[in-house]
Design brief:
Layout (H helix, E strand, L loop, with lengths): L1 E5 L2 E6 L7 E5 L12 E6 L2 E6 L8 E6 L2 E3 L1 H6 L27 E3 L2 E3 L1 E5 H8 L11 E2 L1 E2 L2 E2 L1 E3 L27 E2 L12 E7 L3 E11 L4 H5 L7 E8 L4 E5 L4 E2 L4 H9 L7 E11 L2 E2 L13 E11 L5 E3 L2 H11 L2 E2 L2 E6 H7 L27 E6 L6 E6 L1 H16 L1
Parallel strand pairs: 15-28, 23-25
Antiparallel strand pairs: 1-2, 2-12, 3-6, 3-11, 4-5, 6-10, 7-14, 8-9, 12-13, 16-26, 16-27, 17-18, 17-21, 18-19, 19-20, 21-22, 21-23, 23-24, 27-28
């Protein structure tokens, strides 16, 4: 959180999401675009925002907002930025944004635009701030407690309510957020060894043979007493919600894909281990992710593991290294996300763009084949083995952002 003294009052700028936010940058170059004489591109951290040729000049300050970030409804309304005229302050004017307020990734005559910029002077005027309010490079989501931008979340039928058998998140912790690689370069050293894996487009799952609430005795049930001690048991969780529980005494399997995954694999998980992975392909006749069914027949799905950790009774988590994880998974009967390359960072930096807008199975034998010839791989995960948990970043393909935008818009309409 940044605290700024402005006109004898303290203003706060709060960052709530590392990937989907607004960042103050100084435009050091405007890039020419083939077949688009009236537009220029502003590039930052692997993203590109297309702007009209007269609207932004070199050395201007702008707020750079990446695709799949939604902007405040009030800001869009007051600046007439909605594409639906009736949502704007001036109902005679239409803009760029759908009802969701999401920054879209679009293609104009083969030029990708997957970001949006707000003139810093317009932002300052709107919030009645001075030009010294932020420093270049600062990122934020909230201004003085009011949301300016946030991660777009498509509508979902998945319940975010906790499971009936509520368990302590301490014993099946959520996976850490994976930051954008090009925004984290200062956190790498030239000699760092990194593992480059294929980023699969499915749904996250966490499986654990971990500490669960002990089943109450008949006496405790009679007087509605919750047991204060724990026992070993199995838990399944989506990225945010614990879904199901299985112990030697009782099984509380749900009917969702996360619970199905636990049913298949619980006997493969040793005590005190957590399995983090991606489920891909089909749930019945419905694809987990439209277009990314990876050539598996309907009604089938697979789990690919990207992280294995040990957890003790105090809730302390220590990860296995990538290569130890590979050996563990081979021994326990799990598949591992495809490793495309093991590299030294200084070498990887010279050629990371080779992974963008590509179909990896054409170049890497162990990569999982895409099911749609018109699509590209989502991107890669760059992993460095740190203690006690690895340091992961991601690099996503510009064409994938375009696909993701289209799918998000369809979900929003539905």
């Amino acid at each position: 959180m940044y605290l700024i003294v402005h006109k004898k009052r303290i203003m706060t700028f709060k960052l709530t999401h590392d990937n989907y936010n607004a960042t103050l940058i100084k435009v050091d170059k405007l890039y020419d675009l083939p077949n688009l004489d009236k537009l220029k591109a502003i590039k930052y951290a692997g993203f590109s925002a297309l702007v009209s040729i007269d609207s932004i000049k070199v050395w201007d300050l702008v707020l750079f907002i990446p695709a799949l970030t939604s902007i405040s409804k009030d800001y869009l309304h007051d600046h007439n930025l909605y594409d639906a005229k009736d949502k704007n302050a001036n109902t005679e004017v239409s803009g760029y944004f759908p009802n969701s307020g999401m920054v879209k990734a679009i293609k104009l005559k083969k030029n990708i635009s997957n970001a949006f910029v707000v003139k810093y002077e317009d932002f300052l005027k709107y919030y009645n701030l001075s030009d010294s309010s932020l420093e270049v490079g600062m990122s934020f989501n909230e201004v003085d407690g009011k949301v300016f931008c946030y991660k777009y979340e498509p509508p979902t039928t998945q319940s975010n309510a906790p499971s009936k058998k509520e368990e302590d998140r301490k014993y099946i912790p959520e996976h850490f957020d994976t930051h954008q690689f090009l925004r984290e370069l200062e956190n790498y050293q030239d000699e760092d060894v990194v593992y480059i894996t294929q980023k699969l487009h499915g749904t996250s799952v966490i499986l654990g043979n971990t500490y669960v609430t002990k089943e109450p005795s008949w006496f405790q049930k009679l007087f509605n007493i919750t047991p204060s001690w724990r026992e070993m048991g199995y838990l399944a969780s989506s990225r945010r919600v614990i879904k199901t529980k299985s112990t030697s005494a009782n099984h509380y399997y749900g009917t969702d894909i996360w619970s199905e995954c636990l049913k298949r694999y619980e006997q493969n998980i040793p005590k005190n281990y957590l399995i983090y992975g991606e489920i891909i392909w089909w749930i019945g006749e419905v694809p987990i992710q439209e277009g990314y069914t990876y050539n598996l027949p309907k009604w089938q799905w697979e789990l690919y593991v990207y992280r294995v950790a040990f957890i003790n009774e105090d809730g302390i988590v220590v990860d296995l290294s990538f290569e130890t994880m590979q050996s563990f998974c081979q021994q326990q009967g799990f598949k591992v996300v495809p490793l495309l390359e093991k590299a030294v960072m200084k070498n990887f930096m010279k050629e990371y763009e080779k992974y963008l807008d590509k179909v990896y199975s054409k170049e890497y034998k162990n990569a999982i084949t895409l099911s749609d010839a018109n699509l590209v791989d989502e991107g890669i995960v760059i992993r460095r083995d740190d203690y006690p948990i690895p340091y992961n970043t991601k690099l996503k393909s510009p064409l994938f952002y375009e696909y993701e935008t289209k799918n998000s818009e369809v979900a929003s309409l539905n």
